[in-house]
Amino acid sequence: MKISTIKEELNSLAYHGRGIIIGKSSDGKKAVAAYFIMGRSVNSRNRVFVAEGENMRTKAYDESKMVDPHLIIYYPVRVLGNKTIVTNGDQTDTIYELMDKQMTFEQALRTREFEDDSPNYTPRISGIIRREEGGMNFAMSILKSAEGDPASCERFTYAYSAPKAGVAKFIHTYMGEGDPLPSFEGEPKTLLLPDMEIDALASHIWENLNEDNKVSLFVRYIDLASGECETRIINKNA
Questions:
Q1: Which domain holds residue 36?
Q2: What is the separation of C-alpha 215 from the centre of its chain, rounded to a whole number of angstroms?
Q3: For the chain, what is the domain count?
Q4: What is the dihedral angle through the alpha carbons of 88, 90, 94, 100, rounded to the nearest 10 degrees?
Q5: For residues 169 and 167, what is the distance between their CA atoms, to the nearest angstrom?
Q6: Residue 76 belongs to a domain with what CATH number?
Q7: Regarding beta strands 135-146 and 3-4, do their DSSP bridges make them parallel or antiparallel, or are they unpaired?
């Protein structure tokens, strides 16, 4: 299994699209979650992250430039009890609402498919962290078209129990540039989580995202004993 540093992985592509990183801090005391968005179009770049309590939503930076909000404006982060949900679209709400009705993460996502943005059919990527008895487990999912065929949806879920300290998993929407954009392939990538305070980690991720394409970044540390959260948000449109 290949293990990369955050710097190596983020510098390997100019365009990851949207990305989710989830893992456990090197001291084993915190769950770590990060979500970033990148954009190429004016509409996609015209966004900021805004905190709403424990939740987080996207918002148009300049309302006059917003063209089509339906794949742009959503809640990337929602908290349901001891669970933190992180996604790249309005499937956050689907997961929240159906898990609140006792469905599983995977069952909730079976009601959804990839995005309807032909010809890219952007994958829907999702993650969930469960904090339990001072520990954690997490899962990641990707819903994508089968080789660009909108009639066929491929669904993959990856579950991680008792994850190792100092290691994270990383999933993103695209494998780089292209027309149409090539969807992510394979299992989530494995990254080393550096021993850093939250401000340093947020800065480290932000500095290694492509300068032209990065838009916004969310980072959260969750204390596994108390459940207390620290959150940082960085917006290019500040």
A1: 3-235
A2: 13
A3: 1
A4: 80
A5: 7
A6: 3.60.20.20
A7: unpaired
Element (DSSP H or E) covering residue 155: strand 149-161
162-181 residues labelled b (16+ CB within 10 A) or e (exposed): ebeebebbbbbbbbeeeeeb
Instruction: Give the range among 82-91, 122-131, 176-185, 201-210 with minimum mean pLDDT.
Output: 176-185
Give pTM, 2 decimals.
Answer: 0.97
The amino acid sitting at 177 is E
**CA 119 to each of CA 53, 148, 221: distance values in angstroms, whole numbers, following the listed order:** 36, 7, 36
For 52, the token pair is 């709403």
pLDDT in tens, 43-82: 899 999 999 999 999 999 998 888 888 888 999 999 999 9
Q: Enumerate residues 6+ apart whose C-beta is below 8 A from 181.
A: 15, 17, 120, 122, 173, 174
